[in-house]
Design a protein that fits this description.
Mean pLDDT: 86
CATH class of the largest domain: Mainly Alpha
Number of helices: 9
Distance between the termini: 71 Å
Order of helices and strands: HHHHHHHHH
Shape: elongated
Number of strands: 0
Structural class: mainly alpha
CATH superfamily of the largest domain: Tetracycline Repressor, domain 2
Helix content: over 70%
Strand content: under 5%
Radius of gyration: 19 Å
Largest sheet: none
Amino acid sequence: MPKISAATVAEHRAQQQAALIGAAIDVLVEQGAAAVTPATVGARAGLARSSVYQYFPSGAAILASIVESSFADADRAVRQALHGLNDPVERIAAYITAELRLAEQGAHRPASALMRADLPPECQERVRELHHQHAAPLLAAITDCGAPDPLLTAHLVGGLLQAAVNVVDAGGDRAATTERTLSLVRAGLVPTTTRP
């Protein structure tokens, strides 16, 4: 029986899978989606290709796992940030702040690389679906603000947020970028929230 590095076989498998996903994200970001193969990912993680197949049957399966895991982590961070907030402007601010914290941690790297990648059609569709789900709390908060065209407003705020994420990803100061982004968003939303 192979040696395990955890208290149980299940924990060991979870650790190995997490290590493989981490290695796959590095390969994806550095070399692109085409490089995400069991052999390349296994080499990066220090595992034989045959070991990788115990977790993922193909490069496409690895990419699909990156998609699911990246969005699950981001969704969890946003849920925590919004927990207990009722005021829509506060929810928008919490959402933006959480997204920029994730950017500072490098959590947007996989999603950015996936958006640029030539993914299989089923992966592309899943990325779009997960992206819409992830943006849903922002759209809901903007709708609750009373914006006359919530979907358009959400797209515009999303564009501003993406620009801020790019600044932070490139090494820009997160706190200053967050403050400026929130200032611009609040300025655009305040007229709709103060109507009689």
